Amino acid sequence: MDAVMTKPMDEAIAILKEEVSLLQRVLFLEEKKYQALKEVNLEDLMNINDQEELLLQEIHAKEEKRQQVFHKINPKATDFHAFLSQIEEETVRESFQNLYIQLAELRDRLKMQSEENKHLIQLNSEIISMTLGLFQKTHGETYHSPQAPAKPSPGGSFLVNHVV
């Protein structure tokens, strides 16, 4: 491999390593989010969501930069496997393959953790809905679920719908 290609290859590997690091941080936050959901800790949830938003913006920027660098290295490659097949130096190709595997594993773990969090959110929503239903029966106040069509109230005070 000539010296001209070494710099873009090194840059691409560095970008992939940064993406791995960013996804590891997002996974850590998703795991923290699960604990915050279990504890119904809204302050932690809000902080975690803010941190995740910033990380996702960084990831998006890295993905765009990676695509530009990959295109600079091999404009004809249509996907990662086509890109890999054009790399002659085995150690460089293995580095890319290992990073690709790490990214795929992290994405799978993130997907699973997100599904667990989604499930816990649904359970929490059901608990909140049941609690509000009990509150209505004992205190005569009403609550309208965002999923249910609004019903006219018979009067009395209303419970503010603020479920995060």
General description of the model:
This protein is mainly alpha-helical. The longest helix is centred in the last third of the chain and has 50 residues, at 90-139. The termini are far apart. The chain contains four helices and no strands. Helix 1 packs antiparallel against helix 2 and helix 1 (3-39) packs parallel to helix 4 (90-139). 76% of the residues lie in helices and 0% in strands. The protein has a domain at 3-113.
Notable characteristics:
164 residues, mainly alpha, 4 helices, elongated, disordered C terminus
Low-confidence stretches: 153-164
Task: Using the CA coordinates, give the radius of gyration.
Answer: 24 Å
Cα end-to-end separation? 54 Å
The amount of beta strand, in percent, is under 5%
Q: How many DSSP-defined strands?
A: 0
Question: What is the tally of helical segments?
Answer: 4
Class by SSE composition = mainly alpha
